[in-house]
UniProtKB/TrEMBL annotation:
The UniProt record lists the keyword Lipid biosynthesis: no
A GO term, aspect molecular function: metal ion binding
Domain Purple acid phosphatase C-terminal stretches: 377-437
Residue span(s) of domain Purple acid phosphatase N-terminal: 54-142
Organism listed in the record: Morella rubra
Calcineurin-like phosphoesterase domain location: 153-351
Cofactor requirements of the protein: Fe cation; Zn(2+)
Catalytic activity, EC: 3.1.3.2
Range of residues in the leader sequence: 1-29
The protein, known as: Purple acid phosphatase
Catalytic activity, reaction form: a phosphate monoester + H2O = an alcohol + phosphate
Length: 456
């Protein structure tokens, strides 16, 4: 009995000790944060969010400025952008200019454009539109200074539109592990003109769809046929009215007289944007400007010379077959003379990559009208497969011509990963695959510094 009583006492003591120890642990448990979130009075965001569809693009020739654009539907809203450098408390204000336009029975919201300039290279900036509960915050990073040794990664999307496929393209683009830093857009944006009366609400909804990418990294715009919006039957006689009002480009900094053709430097690349739906023939302002522009590119500073246009010059799909032919006749000899590395186009709703060819020997009577291999020629890439409501271009010319290295009618996007002044890697991703899968890829060598045969 005595032994049993002693055991009970020991057990009871152990229980008490355990409770004390547990209480001790509980008393020194996790921390309760003293941070109190600010309340915005729990008000639902307005149906017409006052600072929606924000987009940015490069704002000067070298990458130390950004054009921030935003549209407020009901009232002018914030008239400027507050911006600051990462790890800095010094905030600055860039005041924007406001414009509105009408198109048939549509009146636009207040379209703001502010040029945020004098930025430092290779730097992350934050920016804010609106104040208080209406404030929206974004960020972007400036590129390295123009120079041959800075790697840089561009994305490529064309003919995006605003379908569920478009949404998938943006999703794949944003989740691409190659981390594109800026997007080269190859024309045909909203496809508003496919709707009755060119329903310009579709320009607004397009702006909202792409905001999740284009508010954070510049999209470099190329004009396509869906930007023309010329409709004399609606008494809309000014071409490009919605695009010109909504999407600005840094054309003046490039010595251009039109927002539709211009150039930029970005890191190791010199990018010339051409306008296929403006006059481009001999004696046109665009031709004159292009000749001066391509002649002044310093490949020691920007080794990669890239041209963007909407309709492809080399296209083996039946869709838009030979539509780029007049442009090819006028410009191809300049591309070869100045050793353009890459020509990107959209328009054909599919993907295609060419080998390095030229067709510049033909003089109508000599019979030399077949494209021939030429290591001074660009690789032509069609990336018009963003996913718009017109669908894929699935019909191809047969047999596949020798100039066509790879072609496939699937929705997707491209990535141009410039490694250094001699090598770049291009990959095409289709939406049907996982984010990291490359459905087509090729190593490219620079035409000026390492003009080896990289066609395959
Ligand atoms: Fe097009
Ligand atoms: Fe298109």
């Amino acid at each position: 009995m005595a032994s049993s009583s002693s055991s009970s006492l020991i057990a009871a003591s152990a229980v008490v000790l355990t409770i004390i120890l547990n209480a001790s642990v509980l008393c020194h448990g996790g921390r309760t944060s003293t941070y109190m979130r600010t309340s915005n009075n729990n008000v639902d965001m307005p149906v017409d969010d006052p600072t929606y569809y924000v987009h940015i693009t490069q704002g000067d020739h070298v990458g130390t400025a950004v054009i921030v654009s935003w549209i407020t539907p009901k009232a002018p809203g914030p008239d400027g952008v507050i911006y600051w450098k990462e790890n800095s408390t010094e905030k600055k204000l860039a005041v924007g200019k406001i414009a509105t336009y009408t198109y048939y029975n549509y009146t636009s919201g207040f379209i703001h454009h502010a040029n945020v300039s004098n930025l430092e290279f290779n730097t992350k900036y934050y920016y804010q539109l609106g104040l208080g509960k209406y404030a929206r915050n974004f960020s972007f990073s400036t590129p390295p200074p123009p120079g041959p040794d800075a790697p840089y990664t561009f994305g490529l999307i064309g003919d995006l539109g605003q379908t569920f496929d478009s949404n998938s393209t943006i999703d794949h683009y944003q989740n691409d592990p190659q981390n594109p830093q800026a997007l080269l857009y190859l024309g045909d944006l909203s496809y508003a003109n496919d709707y009755p009366y060119h329903d310009n609400v579709r320009w607004d909804t397009y702006g909202r769809l792409i905001e999740r990418s284009v508010a954070y990294q510049p999209w470099i715009w190329t004009v396509g046929n869906h930007e023309v919006d010329w409709a004399p039957e609606l008494d809309e006689n000014v071409p490009f009215k919605p695009f010109r009002n909504r999407y600005h480009t840094p054309y003046a900094a490039a010595g251009s007289t039109s927002p539709f053709w211009y150039s930029i430097k970005r890191g190791p690349a010199y990018i010339i944007v051409m306008a296929a739906y403006s006059a481009f023939g001999y004696s046109s302002p665009q031709y004159s400007w292009f000749g001066q522009e391509i002649n002044k590119v310093n490949r020691s500073e920007t080794p990669w010379l890239i041209v963007l246009m909407h309709p492809p010059m080399y296209n083996s799909y039946k869709s838009h077959y030979m539509e780029g032919e007049t442009m090819r006749v006028v410009y191809e000899s300049l591309f070869v003379k100045y050793k353009v590395d890459l020509v990107f186009a959209g328009h054909v709703h599919a993907y295609e990559r060419s080998v390095r060819v030229s067709n510049i020997a033909y003089n109508i009577t000599n019979g030399l009208c077949t494209p021939v291999k030429n290591l001074n020629a660009p690789v032509y890439l069609t990336v018009g497969d963003g996913g718009n409501l017109e669908g894929l271009s699935t019909s191809m010319t047969q047999p596949q011509p020798a100039y066509s290295a790879f072609r496939e009618a699937s929705f997707g996007h491209g990535i141009l990963d410039i490694k250094n002044k001699t090598h770049a890697y291009f990959a095409w991703h289709r939406n049907d695959d996982g984010y990291a899968v490359m459905a087509d890829s090729v190593w490219l060598t620079n035409r000026y510094w390492d003009p080896t045969d990289d066609s395959n």
